[in-house]
Amino acid sequence: MNPETPQGTESPNSLPVPTNDQLLEAILPIRSEAPTLGLPKLLLRLKSLNPGWQLSEKRLRKFLNTNPNLSPQTSNHGHSRCSPRPPSDPLWVPDYVWEKDWEASGFENSTAEPVSSLDDTLLLECRQRSVKVEPVRFPESNKGSGLIAKDKYPKGTQVIKEDAFVWVPYSKNSSRAVMSGQACAFCGRVFSSQRTKSQPYCPHHPAPGSKEAIAAQQLVTTTSTTTTGGQSVTEKPAGPEPCYMRFCTRVCVQRSMEYYGPLVCPQRNPEYMHVIRLADNDEFRGAHMVFKLFARLLIANEKGEPTTNPSFQPSPQPSEDGINKDPSTPVLSTEAEQDQAGSDDPAQGGRSKNKKAKAKKKLTNVIPEWSTPSVEFEKLLTRVESLATVSDRARRERLQGGHHGHFADVRYGQLWRNGWQVVTRALHLDTGYRPTPDPSATTDVFWASYWKRRLSSETIAHYFGFRNFLEFIGKASLNREADHGLYLLHSRFNHSCEPNAMTLKNPGSEDATKSSPSTIYVMTKRDIQKDEEITLAYVNPELTVEARRKKLFEDYLFSCFCIRCRRELKEEEERK
């Protein structure tokens, strides 16, 4: 018979084992105070602060090995240093310094609060169209800008109806429905069980049941000889699988082609599936939204004339002879220069005028000619940059009060790096912009020749580097709706705990097949006077004042001081 445990004590085996999240929360403050603390002393400190834990040295060592940023690290001066692990497959840009973008995105080197500006194009559209609101600036308030009513509206008036600037599936089931053709690939509208001819398939790849798809699925038998002298027979389809994505109308097809091109076709662009898997498995839907924002910029760069005054000017690159070279000048290989120097063509300065000109050798190592971004690229970029923006790394660090920089790096650093890697790879910047010494070395012939206009390497690093990726992640977190849609006009509504309007998805209808998730409606909750600001509730108004203000700070980095919050805070002080 086992002896009984004395009353008032607890057996070590009955103590709770801390989870990884609990360990992380406990180690971060200790590491910020004593970054050089070794494993035994760290274990003693943890046990003294948490006597109710069952924690062994083996468990702690295993946890630190899986989180190298929590290991004791010192610089030459004895201070703690955070050296983030570089991505295994970084963005292809000559001399791209990944660490500079990482440091620039931190709390100390970026804005602590979201920064936004008024979109002049949006203001012009609201004045020209029959829109019931108008963007205005509030110079004497920390709001920055907002939307006011153009006229007097009674309760129940539809103020705006807006389609998403960018929309991504909001759940794993929604993503599966889009990829399997059960929902529109552009707006997310769910289809009924019966397909109609007005629901076209993806235009970038053969559809299921088409002649091309049937021919591609014919099995091709190949026979090969093994090392032992035997023969192995394999059967595989003659071509790629069909694309099952569908669209609810031809309007959605046209918009998808205009916005994203073939970048969102999973068969034409298999790397796009990695973006979807990252969003579904890691719940990192911000990376999916940033991918579509970047895709819109790249597709817009293919349209219109190149701008003569780009917002970003690449600096000239000094050559070996000390002369600054224009990055837009194409560079020829050594063989190409020798071929031009030895040409008999009079236009090339050859000595013989009677000889027949030799056929020019095909230049396979010519760096593509760069061009400035197009006018459409600049217009679209201006509209996106006007939205409230803050680096996601700075946002996470500010939630910790500006301290414990390891917290954001350890918990989200690897996720950010993986997301940036997956997004830039799916954009095919390395194949479309990178010069290849041999055409046969290009694995994807389609993407190697798809981009007709190419940006300079510095422009690519500026707009698609890691710093801009983190800023776009923060932009998506601050401005997206609950359905993971980004709306240019809807994002201008300010918050109030006593809002006079509300957002609806399908007013007057509960049928999901008759409304698209990427369309929202803003309806008035009460009578609104002319020039009165229209506000929405960012969080549930039924929460307590502490819960509302905490949620607002965690998601939007501000604490509400509206009339209702001030009234409830005053009532709480009086009760105390």
TrEMBL record:
<dbReference type="Pfam" id="PF00856">
    <property type="entry name" value="SET"/>
</dbReference>
<keyword id="KW-0808">Transferase</keyword>
<feature type="region of interest" description="Disordered">
    <location>
        <begin position="65"/>
        <end position="87"/>
    </location>
</feature>
<keyword id="KW-0949">S-adenosyl-L-methionine</keyword>
<keyword id="KW-0489">Methyltransferase</keyword>
<dbReference type="GO" id="GO:0045814">
    <property type="term" value="P:negative regulation of gene expression, epigenetic"/>
</dbReference>
<dbReference type="InterPro" id="IPR001214">
    <property type="entry name" value="SET_dom"/>
</dbReference>
<feature type="compositionally biased region" description="Basic residues">
    <location>
        <begin position="352"/>
        <end position="363"/>
    </location>
</feature>
<dbReference type="GO" id="GO:0032259">
    <property type="term" value="P:methylation"/>
</dbReference>
<dbReference type="InterPro" id="IPR046341">
    <property type="entry name" value="SET_dom_sf"/>
</dbReference>
<protein>
    <recommendedName>
        <fullName>Histone-lysine N-methyltransferase SET5</fullName>
    </recommendedName>
</protein>
<feature type="compositionally biased region" description="Polar residues">
    <location>
        <begin position="65"/>
        <end position="77"/>
    </location>
</feature>
<feature type="region of interest" description="Disordered">
    <location>
        <begin position="1"/>
        <end position="20"/>
    </location>
</feature>
<feature type="domain" description="SET">
    <location>
        <begin position="131"/>
        <end position="539"/>
    </location>
</feature>
<dbReference type="GO" id="GO:0042799">
    <property type="term" value="F:histone H4K20 methyltransferase activity"/>
</dbReference>
<feature type="region of interest" description="Disordered">
    <location>
        <begin position="305"/>
        <end position="363"/>
    </location>
</feature>
